[in-house]
Every structure is written in structure tokens, then in C-alpha cells.
Amino acid sequence: MQGAGRGTGSWVSRISLPGGGWGGDEATVAISAHRIGFAIARRLARDGAHVVVSSRKQHNVDRAVAALQGEGLSVTGTVCHVGKAEDRERLVATALEHYGGVDFLVCVAGVNPLVGSTLGASEQVWDKVLDVNVKSPALLLSQLLPHMENRGSGCSGDILSCQFQSLCLFTFAFQKLGVYNTSKTALLGLCKSLAIELAPKGIRVNCLVPGIIKTDFMKVQFQEETEPDFPVCWLISLAKPEECAGIVSFLCSSDASYITGENIVVAGYSPKL
Q: Membrane-spanning residues where (predicted)?
């Protein structure tokens, strides 16, 4: 089945933090304008961030900006498909124009054009999924890195951080999402590699691993009002996007200054030790 899942967009937003919530200096974060990303954007904005939301769709940007501004939060937005180099450049330019630098990056882009056999996926499907889900976060961070470095001296006191989201459904028996699962597993490895590479620069890299979150994406597996048949050790109800937001705010704070290279599961239960 083609066309189901999270969609083909790259949803990223930017956030700038004034003095207060995260330690005093203005900072910038990129996250999504939709679903889990929107919940993270709202939480960070409520914690004092100036937010620049983005999506590949203008109406997602407009809706997010209107909603957050309606709560009295400091928000702007721009269209961006992170799979396109020119869009990533525009996103970086927007952040620099509005806030002059970048302290935090939160990537919540994802695409899943195929629900079906992993080995039956076409080369075009593999290319699209890997381009957006794996390559794009790395390329966006590479474009932002010089501006993140300029925000501080690279010492441990700087709050410079990058957070990836890896919705890892391989923990659950969702066999029809094999290509997507593979891409998100690769993102876990990217987190580990970048954490080591960027540690000397004082930049931390972590990965949020949501479990079964009640979003449009999960309609691939079951109807909106139907609860999944998980073992009794899982929490009873599906998680809401807002339940991912607090951990990201924590990871972007000085309280998480000694946390990097971690894949942090927010899933109600994880079978690993």
C-alpha cells in the first residue's frame, strides 16, 4: 500500500530561547510544526523559547504559528522540506535573520511512503525514506554547525544541543513498516556517531525514541479508537504527543549537560535492560 504513514513532508521548526529557562543566553532550536513536533514546539515556547516552525506545507506552518501566537508565545514560521537543499538553506537563513544564531536543533522529520513488504520496496522508496529520515538531519546539522559553534566557546557550560526523533516501531511487531524502521534505526547510530564527533565542541546529541504515540501515523496499524494488542506490561492507553515534549525540554537544558549519545525511549515500556 502506497501513501500511508506520516506523509512525505519534513516538519522542522526553529526555536530561540531568551534568558531564563535554559541558562541565560538566547538560543535557537529546530523542530516540527505538526504532531509530536508541534507539542515539542509548544513546550519549549512555553519554557521561554522564540519559535520558528516549519513544514513542507504552508498551511501547517500557518496553523502552528497562529495557534502558538494565540497563546501569547513568540513564534514565526517558514516552509521547509528538509529533503531539499534549498529549503534547508532557507530555514537556516530564517533562523539567523530572526535570532542571529543557533543553540539548539531538534529534528522531527519523517516520511513513510510505503506500508508493505520490506524486500518488495522499490529503489525509489528506499531513496526517499533514507534521504529524508537519515541524510537530511545530518545535512541540516552540518549547515547549522558553524552557527552553533559561534554561540559559545565550546566549553561544558554552553547549552548547545541537537536532538533527533526516531520513532522506532521495530520494538513492536509492525512488519509492514520495515523500510521506515530501518531508516530510524540508522538514526540511532547517527546519534551515537555525532555525539562523539561533536563532544569536543561542547555540543550534545541525543535521540528521542517515541513508542506508540496517538498521531495520524499510527492509523496505519489500527483505527483511531482501537487500542493495540500489546503485552500487559505496556501502559494501557496510547501516549499523546505532549508526553514527548518534556523530555526534549530537559535535554535542551543545562540539567542535561552530561547527557549525550543517548537513545531515550518514551514508550510506556521498553523490553531492553
A: none
